[in-house]
Specification:
alpha/beta; Rossmann fold; 34 helices; about 600 residues; about 55% helix
Length: about 600
């Protein structure tokens, strides 16, 4: 009997072992496939699945969807260029370290961020410390800008990498993967995938599946194979600063109790320079800010700590311009700086940035900061009038809360010049403050311009009705309003469009039909408003179609279509290209479009 029982138990144990779930290697391939294919060739089989998490489409929510799927990873490989964000050449998908960090704090992605024992972060600087390498902060900023990064983001990433403030990138990644046993990456520049892949193969070729998933790779072997590179392996629990993770997770939380705990932690610190990043981000949260004010103001000691911190960081070398603005605003909100002094300091920063002239990169940076410029008046004498800067004046003027009469005079002068792109951009900047009489004068003047430019002005001035729908089409659209539901009304409008399509012969007429739609079926009309008029489309029509589309991928596809057509027809200035690029909703598209604006126009 005892023998039989042992046989049964043995059989059950064998059965459980035989049906054990296969191991899974998860990959996030944002550039090179070499590393992924090495792992696939070495370990994939009936008992090991290799799952690519990055979809073929451009869905910006791809990581959240992967997390929500419940997938569990035993090993994670992320490969791509890295500069605070993983990205790739010729692809629009990105992966932001900040996003990983927040998902980790929320415990919203345990199968991907908590379960893997080994995480391979195959990109430059993924495990960087604060130790300087061969590049300076300024040189790193230029490298990132050349890859399409907006200057604001490039400055922030470079400051985080090289300054003495905040956590190192290695510490932040360790905080995001606190349960992992090992992180693999590079402390500086690393080899391209076509080189790193074969090196990884040599390091793993003698490691069996069982060893790879239980004990992990041979660390010494990796160090030997990758000798001469900046390859680095760290243990997250030893590398991370537990205080930083505690603070970051409490500040990122939407729970006011967690926010209160974060503020209590901050208020006890005499040296805040290590924790500036969570503090700065949380200060954009009104609830967190109110609690912080109530903690700082009544306490002379805490007030002194914050005053010392602000004095210290304001003198930090290469502190990004946007961060300078944010710290000035935080000081004012905490009652540590008068509003007038804050405004003077901010205007001084703007003048300094504009001192050497205006260009694409500076215009992009200022427009990225437009939420911080909404209470500042741009002065005409701040801008150096040269052939490089003048074309960008209208674009930068639109990013400030207002501009003075000198700037207005300059814009009005540009609106009368022969250069079509100067005229178009000047009118865009002037439009919000034009009187009804000035609008009519511009409409009359623009009637003598090329048809495309005249149509563009109709959009800028919100005067598409000056190119009215034919009476029969108008009557049909009125009848559509009598239908019972939004779907039936839009169905009727589609019928009107198709019946009178031959009379709807300009983008302005087409968009007057699209403007009346109530459902997402309008996206088909919006596309038609462009594809039917390839030789007549302009920036106004492009943004009208793209901005209405709620789907980020489709919306950006419209912008790419417009970029291609306008570029091919030589109808896109660099300033207008910036307007198109900065409106991209997917970060990777923004990088690519920025690069195009700087290098292909």
């Amino acid at each position: 009997m005892k023998t039989c029982l042992l046989l049964i138990l043995g059989s059950l144990l064998f059965s459980v072992g035989a049906t054990a779930a296969p191991k899974r290697i998860c990959t996030m391939t944002l550039n090179s496939e070499n590393e992924r294919e090495v792992l696939r060739s070495l370990y994939a089989g009936s008992d090991v699945e290799v799952t690519e998490l990055v979809p073929a489409n451009k869905d910006p929510q791809w990581l959240q969807k992967a997390c929500q799927s419940g997938i569990e990873c035993d090993v994670l490989l992320v490969s791509g260029h890295f500069g605070g964000v993983f990205f790739g050449e010729g692809v629009s998908t990105t992966l932001d370290l900040k996003e990983i960090e927040k998902l980790s704090c929320e415990n919203a992605c345990p199968g991907i961020l908590n379960k893997p024992k080994d995480v391979f972060l195959m990109g430059c600087n993924t495990l960087a410390t604060k130790v300087p390498d061969k590049r300076s902060i300024e040189e790193y900023v230029e490298v990132l800008i050349k890859n399409g990064f907006p200057r604001d983001l490039a400055e922030r990433v470079a400051f985080s990498r090289y300054s003495d403030y905040g956590m190192s990138i290695s510490q932040i990644f360790s905080s995001a993967f606190p349960q992992s046993e090992r992180l693999h990456g590079f402390s500086s520049t690393g080899p391209m995938g076509r080189v790193a892949g074969p090196m990884m193969r040599r390091a793993l070729k003698d490691i069996s599946k069982e060893t790879f998933f239980t004990k992990g790779p041979n660390i010494q072997k990796f160090k030997d194979v990758f000798a001469g590179t900046s390859y680095r392996i760290v243990e997250p629990k030893k590398e991370m600063d537990p205080n930083y993770r505690h603070l970051a997770c409490k500040t990122y939380s939407k729970d006011t109790t967690h926010n209160k705990e974060a503020i209590e932690f901050i208020s006890q610190k005499t040296n805040l320079k290590k924790y500036y990043e969570p503090l700065l981000e949380a200060s954009e949260n009104p609830s967190f800010l109110a609690q912080l004010q109530n903690t700082v103001l009544p306490s002379p000691e805490i007030t002194r700590n914050f005053e010392n911190f602000f004095a210290q960081i304001s003198s930090a070398k290469s502190l990004p311009m946007k961060m300078k603005f944010q710290f000035l605003e935080l000081q004012a909100k905490l009652g540590l700086m008068p509003e007038m002094v804050k405004r003077e300091q901010q205007e001084k920063l703007i003048r300094q940035r504009l001192a050497n002239g205006l260009n694409f990169i500076i215009t992009d940076q200022l427009c990225t900061m437009k939420d911080h410029l909404k209470n500042i008046e741009l002065k005409g004498d701040w801008i150096k009038l040269d052939k490089v800067g003048i074309p960008f004046m209208p674009r930068v003027a639109q990013c400030f809360g207002s501009y003075d009469t000198r700037m207005e005079d300059l814009l009005k002068a540009m609106a009368t010049m022969d250069d079509p792109s100067w005229r178009r951009e000047a009118v865009r900047a002037l439009a919000p403050r034009l009187t009804p009489i000035e609008v009519q004068d511009l409409l009359i003047a623009s009637s003598a311009w090329p048809v495309r430019d005249h149509q563009d002005i109709l959009y800028t001035l919100n005067q598409k009705q000056q190119d009215p729908l034919p009476p029969m089409a108008q009557h049909c659209m009125l009848k559509a309003k009598r239908q019972d539901t939004a779907d039936s009304r839009d169905g009727y409008r589609w019928g009107c469009y198709k019946e009178f399509e031959h009379l709807i012969d300009t983008p302005a007429k087409c968009h007057q039909v699209a403007d009346q739609f109530e459902t997402n079926s309008v996206s088909g009309i919006d596309w038609n408003c462009l594809t039917r008029f390839n030789s007549k489309i302009h920036l106004g029509a492009c943004l009208a179609s793209a901005d209405r589309n709620q789907d980020p991928e489709n919306s950006d596809d419209i912008r790419w279509y417009c970029w291609s057509k306008l570029h091919d027809q030589n109808q896109l200035s660099r300033s207008e290209c910036l307007a198109l690029a900065s409106s991209m909703r997917i970060q990777g598209n923004r990088f690519k479009a920025n690069w195009n604006c700087m290098n292909r126009l």
